[in-house]
Amino acid sequence: MLKTDLVTNLAGLKLRTPLLLASGVVGYAVEYEKIDEIDFNSLGGIVLKGVNLHGKKGNPQPRIVDSTVGIINSIGLENPGIYKMIDEILPKIPRKTSIIANIFGDTVQEYGEVAEVVNSISEIHAIEVNISCPNVKRGGRLFGSDPSITREVLHTVRQAYHNRPVIAKLSPGVTDITEIAKAAVDGGADVISLINTMPALAVTLHTKPPKPVLGNIVGGLSGPAIKPIGLAKVYQVHQFFKHAGIAVPIIGIGGIMDATDVLEYMAVGARAVQLGTVMFTNYHAHTQIARGIEEYFKKHGFSSKKTDKFVGSVLRSDHPTP
Ligand SMILES: Cc1cc2nc3c(=O)[nH]c(=O)nc-3n(C[C@H](O)[C@H](O)[C@H](O)COP(=O)(O)O)c2cc1C
Questions:
Q1: What are phi and psi of 53, to 5 degrees?
Q2: 3-state secondary structure 102-133
Q3: Axis crossing angle, helix 177-187 with helix 227-244, rounded to the nearest 10
Q4: 3-state SS of 246-270?
Q5: Ligand 1: residue whose CA is nearest its atom 29
């Protein structure tokens, strides 16, 4: 049981702690809840696996490969679609913590339609918009790599989803992350989460000729290798918002394995974080991490009221871009 109050507020969404589970790592949390002794008190919330309107079959197998510095996955956003999710899965989703839907689409219109359906579900406390996927009407270019499309997607979702926070989840593979973050906020995002995975490939020399390991050839790298990238992106967006007077909270994601990683993300500007790959090896990571944050705050004299002072407290530079 935590002794310190780690309550965090994300644009009106009150979280018990700043620790969320990232989309895709515990599915819809139905099986996760059945694992013995999961401590929901040290968890701020769960971001559900991404859904679109009519579902997706996903990519050919194999879909996950271990790399020395993390994992590469090419699940291909497999999901049953929002209607099946609501009818068959929603009743089984645990109600012990905040639940955040994660949505995507092939077109801007599809994002709006999915958001409209999610809007009718009171058990969902916020919506995270994954814009790291291909726009079929623009030759497969990622929605999140273009500021004007990013603004359009977020505006469309904001029009369809009311009274609860809209989170824009950004991709790290863009020229200027601050431009995309600003576009998301202009479109109506209340919170920015970053980062999604980085494009990556694994090869095996055990075949003749050598072959890519994943069925889809290219997948997304997650885990420790991407933590320094996530830290840089959070730092850049936080500094940009600060100088532009934009009061939008940031959720840090990427390679978090322990409490130190979380505190580093908070120091560069994250109000909350998401745990991804670490959950594959340790179902109780959030509990250990919450205790680690508690210990650090106690040792350094931070109370929950002062947590905001810690967020973004890293030594500031007037020249944040490398
Ligand atoms: C197997 C797997 C499935 C994922 N599925 C989704 C998804 O459906 N939607 C999404 O926005 N991100 C998805 N992600 C990305 C994670 O939410 C997270 O952004 C990424 O893994 C980086 O965090 P990490 O290094 O802590 O794992 C997935 C990641 C993994 C490993």
A1: -75, -55
A2: EECCCCHHHHHHHHHHHHCCCCCCEEEEECCC
A3: 60
A4: CCCCEEEECCCCCHHHHHHHHHCCC
A5: 24
Kindly state the tokens that stand for 13.
């969404």
Return the H-helix or E-strand segment holding 230.
Answer: helix 227-244
- DSSP SS3 for 9: strand
222 lines ligand 1 (CB under 6 A): yes
Residue at token pair 């579902």: 55
Structural domains for the chain: 8-59+73-200+219-310 (3.20.20.70)
Q: Is the pTM of this model over 0.85?
A: yes
Q: Tell me if 265 sits within 8 A of 256, measured CB to CB.
A: yes
Ligand 1 centroid from CA 222, angstroms = 7
Annotated active-site positions, please? Answer: 133
Decide: helix, strand or coil at residue 236.
Answer: helix
Taking the CA of residue 169 as reference, the ligand 1 atom at the shortest distance is 11
pLDDT tens for each residue of 199-224: 999 999 999 999 999 999 999 999 99
**For residue range 275-312, what is the model confidence (pLDDT) as tens digits?**
999 999 999 999 999 999 999 988 888 766 667 778 99
H or E element, residue 192: strand 191-194
Region of residue 54 (phi > 0: left; psi between -120 and 50: alpha; otherwise: beta): alpha
Give the Å distance between the CA of 185 and the centre of ligand 1.
22
Q: Is the CB of 75 under 6 A from ligand 1?
A: yes
74 lines ligand 1 (CB under 6 A): no
Q: How far away, in angstroms, is 300 Cα from ligand 1 center? A: 32
Q: Write the residue with the smallest CA distance to atom 22 of ligand 1.
A: 254
